[in-house]
Design brief:
With 264 residues, the protein is mainly alpha-helical. It contains twelve helices and five strands. The protein is elongated and about 60 Å long.
C-alpha cells in the first residue's frame, strides 16, 4: 500500500467521525489562523465533500452559505465557489429562490462506477490469484482480521477504510496498483451507497463474509472462484440501493432508465 493513500483514507475516517467538521463555530474552528482564504476554501471543500460521502450530511439536508462563511472565517465568495464545485460533482443541488441542499444519490453514476469496478477488479482478482505470494496472502489475512475487529467495535467507518485497503491491495498484488486511482476517481456516488449500507450491522457482517470468501479463493489459487466471489460482492450495491430506498426513497435520484443487476 502506498503511504499517501492510506493517510488520505485515515483523514477521511477522521472527517466522518469528528462531530465538529462542519458545524463548529468560528471561535472553536480547528482551522489554523494563518491559513489564507483560498486555503480555508479548499479545506471547506474537502470537509463538505467527505461529510457528504460518508453520510454525515444526508441527501436533502440544507446548507447555509452565510453560515458556512461565518463558521469558517471566510467571505461568501469562496464559499460560493466551493458550493458550485460540489454542484458540478452532483453532490450539492441549488434550488433557485429556495436554497442549497445535499443532492440525492445519482443512480446512473452508481451503475456506471459499479460497471467500472466489476470490469477492472474481476479481472484483477484472477491475476492476483495467480501471482499472490505467501506474504501477500498473509497481508490479506491480516486485513480480514482487522475488519473483524472493526465489526466487533461497531465501527462501520473504520470497516469502510479497511474495505478500501483490501481492494487496493488486491489490485497491487495483481500488478495494477494504479487502477485503484481510476476506480477512486469515479465512485463518489457509489461510496455514498456503501457508507449508508454499512450502517446496518447485518449488512456489515455480510460484506465481511464476502471478503473472507474472496481472500480464501486467492489463498487457494482458485481463479474462477475468486472472480465469481468478487463479482457477487461488487453487485451487492444494487441490493443495497433497494434496501435503503425502502426506508429513504428520497435519498435517490431515479433516472428514466431502470437500474439493473445484469451489467456483465
Amino acid at each position: 500500500m502506498r503511504a499517501g493513500r492510506t493517510n488520505g483514507l485515515w483523514l477521511l475516517v477522521y472527517k466522518c467521525t469528528n462531530p465538529h467538521m462542519v458545524t463548529t463555530p468560528r471561535s472553536q474552528s480547528a482551522m489554523p489562523p494563518f491559513e489564507t482564504a483560498r486555503e480555508r476554501g479548499s479545506r471547506l471543500y474537502e470537509r463538505l465533500r467527505n461529510d457528504i460521502l460518508c453520510g454525515r450530511l444526508r441527501p436533502g439536508e440544507a446548507l447555509s452559505e452565510s453560515r458556512l462563511a461565518e463558521q469558517h472565517g471566510i467571505s461568501r465568495t469562496p464559499v460560493r465557489e466551493v458550493i458550485q464545485r460540489l454542484v458540478k460533482e452532483n453532490l450539492l443541488a441549488i434550488v433557485p429562490q429556495v436554497g442549497t441542499f445535499i443532492a440525492p444519490i445519482k443512480l446512473s453514476a452508481v451503475t456506471s462506477s459499479q460497471f467500472i469496478r466489476e470490469a477492472l477488479e474481476c479481472r484483477a482478482v484472477r491475476f492476483a490469484t495467480e501471482r499472490a505470494t505467501r506474504p501477500q496472502v498473509e497481508a490479506l489475512r491480516q486485513q480480514i482480521s482487522r475488519q473483524e475487529q472493526a465489526i466487533a467495535k461497531g465501527d462501520h467507518v473504520a470497516f469502510f477504510l479497511l474495505d478500501e485497503q483490501m481492494h487496493s491491495l488486491i489490485l497491487d498484488i495483481a500488478g495494477h496498483a494504479h487502477a485503484w486511482d481510476l476506480i477512486a476517481s469515479v465512485k463518489a456516488q457509489l461510496d455514498r451507497v456503501r457508507y449508508l449500507s454499512l450502517e446496518d450491522n447485518r449488512w456489515l457482517k455480510m460484506i465481511y463474509r464476502q471478503h473472507r470468501g474472496i481472500v480464501a479463493a486467492i489463498r487457494n489459487h482458485d481463479s474462477p472462484g475468486a472472480e465469481q466471489a468478487m463479482q457477487e460482492h461488487l453487485r451487492t450495491v444494487f441490493d443495497a440501493v433497494e434496501r435503503i430506498a425502502q426506508q429513504h426513497a428520497e435519498f435517490f435520484e431515479r433516472e428514466p432508465a431502470t437500474v439493473t443487476k445484469d451489467i456483465a
